[in-house]
Specification:
By secondary structure, this protein is an alpha+beta fold. It has one domain. It has 4 helices and 8 strands; from the N terminus they run E-E-H-H-H-E-E-E-E-E-E-H. Strand 3 and strand 4 form a beta hairpin. The longest helix is centred in the first third of the chain and has 10 residues.
Length: 146
């Protein structure tokens, strides 16, 4: 399998030179290399893989800044959750297409996701969501490298 990297260099007179380099990569290397894994898939592909593993419910912060698990009344504190994997997605032409998907597990073993846009806009107004997220312990798992 080959991938092409394009580098753009601007010359002083306004001329743009494009250098294209071909890089051979085996399919196995793509799937095993965590540096490539998140860039090789789309948000919908990752969500489908997670759905196949039974992970489809969301953790969401409500208007009262309480983190809830979908269809549950439990109000979570950051220490009751663990981030198992973080995926970042960047839109090719529109910064509004930037998103982060977090795979989380609570202390009872319930697994779910948080999806948030990032950049100029977030799905959650105010600083409470960002503060809450930063306080969740992280224990990245290779189980979700696909």
């Amino acid at each position: 399998m080959a991938f092409y990297n394009a580098e753009f260099n601007l010359i002083c007179n306004g001329l743009i030179i494009v250098v294209i380099r071909k890089k051979q990569i085996s399919k196995n290397n793509i799937m095993e290399n965590p540096d490539n894994i998140d860039r090789m898939t789309t948000l919908s592909q990752v969500m489908e893989k997670l759905r196949e593993r039974g992970i489809h419910r969301e953790f969401r912060m409500n208007e009262s800044c309480e983190m809830k698990y979908e269809d549950s009344e439990k109000n979570y504190q950051p220490k009751e959750l663990t981030i198992l994997k973080t995926y970042r997605f960047e839109g090719d032409s529109n910064p509004d297409d930037n998103a982060v998907l977090y795979v989380l597990e609570d202390n009872s073993g319930n697994k779910g996701i948080i999806i948030d846009s990032y950049g100029a806009e977030s799905n959650y107004p105010g600083h409470e969501f960002d503060t809450f997220l930063r306080e969740i312990p992280i224990n990245e798992s290779d189980e979700y490298n696909f």
